[in-house]
Every structure is written in C-alpha cells, then in structure tokens.
UniProtKB/TrEMBL annotation:
Species of provenance: Rugamonas fusca
Domain 4Fe-4S Mo/W bis-MGD-type intervals: 6-61
Family: In the C-terminal section; belongs to the prokaryotic molybdopterin-containing oxidoreductase family.
GO biological process: formate metabolic process; respiratory electron transport chain
Residue stretches in coiled coil: none
GO MF terms, alphabetically ordered: 4 iron, 4 sulfur cluster binding; formate dehydrogenase (NAD+) activity; metal ion binding; molybdopterin cofactor binding; NADH dehydrogenase activity
Span covered, complete protein: 206 to 888 of 888
Cellular compartments per GO CC: membrane; oxidoreductase complex
Metal-binding found in the keyword field: yes
Name listed for the protein in its UniProt record: Formate dehydrogenase subunit alpha
Organism domain of life: Bacteria
Amino acid sequence: AATAATQWTRSTCVYCGVGCQMDVGSRDGKVVAVRPAEHPVNHGHLCVKGRYAYEYNHAPDRVTTPMLREGDGWRAASWDEALDHTAATLLRIRDQHGADAIGVLGSARATNEENYLAQKFARMVIGTNNVDCCARVCHTPSAKALKTMLGTGAATNAFNDIEQTRCFLLCGCNPTENHPIVGARIKQAVLKGAALIVVDPRRTELAEYAQLHLAVRPGANVLLFNAMAATIIEEGLVDADFVAQRVDGLDEFAAFARAYAPEAVSAQCGVDAADIRAAARLYAGSAPAMCFHGLGMTEHTQGTEGVMTLINLALLTGNLGRAGSGINPLRGQNNVQGSAQMGCEPATLTGSQPIAQARAVFESTWGGALPTTQGLDLMQMLDGAAAGQVKALWAFGYDIYMSMANQHASAQALGQLDCVIVQDLFLNETARAFGTVFFPAASVFERDGTFMNSDRRVQRVRAAVPPPGDARPDWWIIQQLARRMGHAQGFSFDGPQAIWDEVRAVWPAGSGLSYRRLEAESLHWPCPQRDDNAHPGTPVLHGASFAGATRARLAQIPFVATPEQCDPDYPFALVTGRGLYHFNAGTMTYRGANAQLQASDVLDMAAADATRLGLADGMRVRVRSRYGEVELPLRISPRVKPGELFTTFHRPDLHVNQLTSPHRDRLVHTPEYKVTAVRITPA
Ligand code: SF4
C-alpha cells in the first residue's frame, strides 16, 4: 500500500505519550499508509499501533454527520440544527440549574489548541470551572505529586536521556506493550550495560532483562518505596552533597522511614527484604538513575502518595536535575499531558497556573470575568450527575462509559443526565447508551495543531486528508457552539495557529514555541520567548532549582491499605491494563487489522491456580467482583503470580470495567483500576 500513496505528510502518532513522528501516505483523500520518520524520539521506527492501526480512519461505521437522539435511535441533522439545538439546551440548563450544572471534558485525542478552547468555552461561555480530562483517570496523581514536591507537574527528563542513564527503575509500567518505542530503547540500553530494576506484580517482558524484578503485591507500592528509602538512609547511600544543597527534612524523614525497614514490610509487600535492599543499593549506587512509572503507580488509592515516595528516592540520591535521571511518568495517550496542561483541569488554567494567581492575565486576554466557584473534577461530575446536580456533560474523544472504573455506578450517573454531548469519530459506548447529541469529529489525520508528549516535547500535527462528510475538527465545533451561545468574541480564530498564539500569550513557559519554530523542530517546554527567538527548550528540569524554589522537601507518606482486599469469597487480586495491539476502549484499534492480532480481552492466570481450580487454557471463565461480573477466555500465563490475575479492557462488548471498584486516589480521586478482588468459576 505504501507505493500507492501520492502524498506524504509529516505528523505525530496519536496513540501513546512517546510522540513518534511519522509520514502519513495518502491517495485520493484517503490514508493508505504510515511510515516512520527519522526523528530524535523514534529514530525511524514505529510500533504496531502507530504503523498499522490507521484503518479506523475510513471505517464504514465512521459517523460523518451530526446526529440528535430520537427515542431509542438517532436521526441525522445539519450542523445548523444540531448546534442550535445544543446551544438552546445548554442555555436552558444553565438558566434553570446554574452554570455549575454543566461539565466539559477535554481529550487526550484532541490537540493542545482544541483543549485550550474547550476550557475557555467552559469558563467563558458556560461560566463554570467544571472542566477536566481523562488525565483524571490516569496521571493526575503524577502531576499532583510532582507539582507538590518539585513545583512542576510534568516529567523531569526527556526520552533522549535514555541512553545516558546507568540504571532504570521501572515502576508499574510495561513499556514493551504500552510505550513500545521507549520500551525498545530501554532494552537496547540495558543490553549495552545499563542496570534495570522492574517493580511490577507481573513478570513483564522487560523484567526478563532486569537484574532485579520486585513483584510487589498490588496496592503495596508505598510500603516498597518507603522501604527502599529506609535502606538508602540506613546504609549510608544518601547523596549527602545534593541533600545538603537542595533537600530539606532528612532527619525527620529518617526517623519516619525507620518503621519501614525492608525486614518489617517484606511480607506485606510480597518482596524479599534482601531484594528490596539490593534494589536500593543498585539505584542509589548507579547515578544517574532514571525512573519511569506508569498507571501501576497512579491508579491506586495511594496513587499520588505512591509517586511522592518515588520522588523521595530521587531526592535522597541526587537523581534530579541531570541528564539520565529524574521521575518520568509514561503518559498513556499522546496528548494527555497537553489536555491538562492547556487548562482542562478544574483548579488550574493553561500552563497549570492556579486560577487565583493567573486570573488577571486571563481575564484581560479573554475580555471577561472567570468563574469564581470551585470546579468539579471528572469523578465529582459523575457524583454530581448521580445526585441530580450536574445535568449536562460534553465529552470529546473520550468514551467515559467504556473506560471508567466501576461501570455500573458510572452508568447510573450518566443515565441521570439531561444532555450528553459526545464528539467522536464513532458512536462509542457512551454515545450508544447515553448520548443525546453526537458531533462528528475530524480524526488526527484530518486536523492541524500541536500535541505535547510525555516528556514535554511539543510537536506539530498536520492534516493529511480532508475530513469525510460533515466531520469537523474539534476547534471548529467548539467555536460554532460558543458563537451560538453569544460568544463570537474570543471564539473567532481562523485556525489552530491563531489559537496557539493566544496560548503563548497566557502561558509564559510556552511563549517561545511559535509555529514558525515548531515547523522546523520540536521543543520541550519551558521555552519562554527570548529576543533572539531561539530559546533551546528545556529537556531536563530542575537543574539549578525546583520551579523557582531552591530546595525541595522529603515527604513522609504513611502506608494506608486499600479497602479493596481479597477474602475467601474473592480470593484473587485482579490487575487491569492495556496490551500491545489495542488502545484503551478499542474504538480505533478494533477497526482494523489489529483486531485479528488480539480478538478479545483475556484473563491471565498462573498455571498453579488453573490446575487447582480445574481450569484449562482457552476455557471461558466467569470473573466476579463485589461490583459486577464478566466472562472472559482464560490464558495460562507465566507472567502473573499465583493469587493474582491480569486482563485488559479493550473490547466494547465485554465491558471489563463492570468489575473494577469505586475506590479512588485519596487526593485527586483517580479510580483504583489496579486492585480488584475477584473470584473465578467456569463459565
Ligand atoms: Fe505511536 Fe507510541 Fe507506538 Fe510511537 S510508541 S508509534 S507514539 S503508539
């Protein structure tokens, strides 16, 4: 198919947060091939999703016209009718119930420009801070932990540091499957001599290459990292110079950590004390050491606090502010960093600027007053819907129903809403079950703008083909709705570049990222405007200070067990996650050849458990939690331990999230996808 392309357009992969560059081949207005570009991130490679999973773009069930709910079905509408209807509905709800009865959800599938416009719409057109995005269910804990302790809620280092590190500490992430290009670079670095510690309940592919695999019990991360910190202090492995110059609270922290000696917590962690000590020695003795973490860290009741315990390790050992070190969340979707960074977050404006601090600048730029009420996050919006206080939700590029934990409860909440606006390529599960309005969006191959990948690198996205039918880019749809709601001013941009120039005006750390520069290179923020227009960007944060503060403080995080515990009725701990061939709710990857590579979610179980229960590979089993039940095919897997299970939640007809629990991160409410007590019986 590659030879059939008549045009090639450079763009950015939409899937994971690595942000690989690719050339999109098109012919007669259709995407017919994707090939990797030579670029500092992906070095001429793409993974199986980026390279092959583009067929969804021209899938026969792509929705290309606006639609309005009519009874149990839908009817097609013109843009004028759909927009007028939606504007009138939102205005009526606002008049009757107040602006805070409406919520807006930005999207990791949308560009920075579109997310910026979405939160501006919520705040200026609706008049609410009820704006959030899917970061709430993945890496908001990372952002909160990093911002609290280091002053900036983003990855400290760049992917290009991978080859400079002497030791990787991979925590709750499986880059081989979820960030494959980074996974391959890590593996290459390990084969060339870097040390590798993998902390994961499962024996992931990279664990095979590790000096140490700490198969921590699901939910015990805080115990484990406190124990590593205790070892570092007890065995004199602290970087004394770094701590003296830049870290506060060592003496108090040392007293706190004593209770977490490896021998004291080993049984609860499920990891040998000797291995915890060996990991602490290896990490502390191999500077620069670089930590990557994923949702296995964040999607817990102590998700934010777990990341804080990782930051403690970096502070104790001086692994911050230098190439090859740092604390680096691996973001699951390409622009999840950008959606929150652009202000799709209830308490902060663009650039993660707290509303109270940045209010004057935004009010002057936007020409109006910002709302003063405290916004609801995504989870609180669902709670508000269930309680009858939130009446309308606008979600783009986000299948909430399919991907939200504790699905029966989210269904009950979504079912209470008067108005659910879904903006997507397909009638996703949220639209099917609860949508009242459907706006057909342009895909990543059909729009211009920028993405921001996991390591703060901002890159261009370019339209390779026109949108089909009446599909339109998100920014166009938001503007049209704003104008019908009386806000032509502030929503009359002629395209993404003009929107981005306004972003640069309100976000000092991004002011140097002009389209002119991004045309030629991708840059890491902070990249402030300079007179010579040549700030080089900042691949490594915290070189001399922590976001303006000279010192950071160690965090004392007591371990608090999740309420989701196994018992004789629910004896297995189920971990959910993603696999190599599919992406989140499967909306894109199940509409192409990747569907044949993995046709179904499967339940991974250790051979010893299967034998004990009389189960065989390939059998269908019933998985029951305290919250719901699904049937899955069983796969005997050497990657999971006895007593633990793993599955993905990609297939829309299986709804694996019926199983997951209502428990949430104690600080930012991220659902606990990573621990669910279940029992297994033959189907
Ligand atoms: Fe796309 Fe991530 Fe694969 Fe790169 S590693 S091609 S960004 S899915």
